[in-house]
Amino acid sequence: MSERRTRSEVRLGAAASPDARGRIDVRIDGNEAGRPIYFQSGDVDLAPSNEAALTSAILPAMLWNQNIVVEGPASRRFLENLDRIEDIYHCWDARLQKVQVRGATPVVRERRGERVGLFFSGGVDSFYSLLKHQDEVTDLIFIHGFDIGVGDRSRLQGIGEVVRRAGERLGKRVVEVATDLRSLLEGQALSWRRLGGGPVKAAIGHVLGAEFKRIYIAAAETYAILVPWGGHPLLDPMWGTEALEFRRDGGESTRPEKVGRLVAHDWIVESLRVCWRPTADGLNCGRCEKCMRTMLILESFGALERCPTFAADLEPQRVARIHYRGVYFLDGAREVLEALERSGRARALARALRRALTRSERSVVVSALLETYSPRAASSFRRLDRQSRRDDSLA
Amino acid sequence: MRVHAPAGPDANGRLAVTLEEGTKKDSFYFASRDFNLQPSGEALIASALFAAMQSGAALGLAGTISREFYETIGDIQDILAEWHPQLAKVGIEGCQPQPCSVAPAGRVGLFFSAGVDSFYSLLKHQDEITDLIFIRGHEFRARENELLDRNARIVHETARRMGKHVIEVETDLRWLLASKGLKWVKVTHGAVMAAIGLLLQGEFRRIYIAATGNYARLDPWPSHPMLDPMWGTEALEFVHDGCELNRVEKVAVLAREDWVLRSLRVCGEYTTTAPNCGRCEKCIRTMLNLLAAGALERGPQFEVGLDAQRIRRMRVSDFHRLEDEKDNLHALAQAGAPRAIIRALRSAIHRWERRFLLMRLARTLPSPLRLLLRLPYRLLRRLGLIERRPREAGEQAAEMQGAS
Predict the structure, then answer these.
(1) The architecture CATH gives domain B107-241
(2) Which residues belong to CATH 3.40.50.620 in chain B?
(3) Burial tier of B164 (Cβ tally within 10 Å: 0-12, 13-18, 19+)
(4) Rounded to whole angstroms, how far apart are CA atoms B220 and A226?
(5) pLDDT tens, position by position, A91-102
(6) Which residue of A has its CA nearest to B74?
(7) Cβ–Cβ of A90/B244 closer than 8 Å?
(8) Which chain B residue is nearest to residue A369, measuring alpha carbons?
């Protein structure tokens, strides 16, 4: 349920230019939960725009079911696309209601630069897109406050070094931008993984100003798995204007196919950063599902030993205990298993992964089957299943 | 593989297209008495792409093609190859990409079958749409004239009522592709529509393709909001329309117009006494949509009425349809529909959901055990005590017909 509304509309406003620290604040006034958010960069002059403010505010406004009022110019194409963007979000989450945007003056935005950006975190997807478009990409954009919080300086420092090394190696500029938009969205119980990632990247693209003509967003999913996942190949381009294009990239390749392309470059394998919960110095934990998925793929190419960025070794017992939920993770695990079995390497790991996959699939199906008989029985099953996995990991 | 066609249709409006690979030759046709079909390079590529991708051979054709189309065809293939493992990305050779020479024209079309989705898009864009495009040979074989004429009459009556032109286009492309194992429902129908749209591009600037699903269901489907616009050129835009609503909500919109409800034609079965059989899952689903909208009595003709027993026994082909039925269940409960109907629908949903889940569970079993479990099912089927699943049976029949 949406929160109790105290006003009938959301008003947006932003300073005309960044302050001395390179920071711009965007006011989102419309609800007791509304508050200013900021974007900050020491690498470029950020340009406040109504597109950035609207992109930041659209999900909260839809959740509060309040129209948005904004003054000044905004891209005509962007304003026209907002209706469809709202349709998509409403279908993805029924709590999000369609709202109107009032007060903006539609204009045709003119491009002033030729820079091409890529959101870059040093992971498999963004390295793949960097190699694919290395002749075209001029800037690597690293976000503080995306998967690592803005206050987590040591981790950001560690990952920032990976990004800067990649930039130096390929002769690309690095643009670091910090924002607290994620905390606003999460504060409204909007799923970060499913819904929130796309608008944050789009808002940052807009505050980077008219110097950029195109920004690539590396896709984690393939075209075969078209679930909302921090963005979507259908949705991402809709955030664009006449002057700035967003492209979701890499949906044609599975994660093993992407890693297959990366392992030809030692310097990439030596710096891969994939973990959502990295160690204090920014290394991959080596224990989470994503780390183990990537390590298994690297192992299938015989490249794991060349990768020093994982803080733990890959052990079959730990692999066998992974629990996959949802189509995205199950399909991802199947791809990894195929890659491992095709390679003929690491048979014990392949067996462990098959065990984990089978167990996860059965658990998901049995839970869904029980749901058709009795939701209470399904809930009890899930509780017992969780408990048994916990016991396994302690054993 | 080469694709070629004469410079224009013959005196009967028929355009024969030939596909050649080595010594092997296939041919198919498009025909229209209402429009002078233009065999543009883009239309030929759209119609031949699946055959080329399946054989893995580069597709060659002479002449020029739109630069925009040429730049996007690689992305289209990336998507198709990811969706269908039997398809591989191929090169496009022999043609010259250049900005489209056809000047943008003024007509706006809609592929129209008189079903829920196309009627919804027609009402939504009625001020803009100038032409309804009706395909013969898309759902039924072109030679099934009686059925097609009946459906065409509904399309013409709708167009007359709303002051629109009708363009009928006949093709056998579906059946050629089906004979190669490329299923129309799950693989090719989007490209067939794109090919037909591209044959019309001389006079059309936009063509709407009515969506089947909404944005919550973006799984691979041949006509898809991501894919359809990619078939466009500098002169012609394809718009995948109507994803903002599910089928229950669309029928509620249609229920505002009695004549629309009466004209609905949703059934893909062979019927004789009414346009809709009332027995297939799609008919039952639509009747439930109408019941939820309080418009069943005002709805179209069905050969048989809505009946709890029939709902309980209905066959659901896949998870997508199951989700549609769940939408129905939710809407019917909210609308206060008769309990017997709700109970019957819930029972059907649970039965099919359990069946799909058990099939999924069976796939996790070791192969010998899976084979053992299949034996009784095969035996019962051989004895004629159970039938195949309807979609599977329908697709196989279509392919056999196409091959013959």
Answers:
(1) 3-Layer(aba) Sandwich (3.40)
(2) 107-241
(3) buried
(4) 8
(5) 999 999 999 999
(6) A252
(7) yes
(8) B354
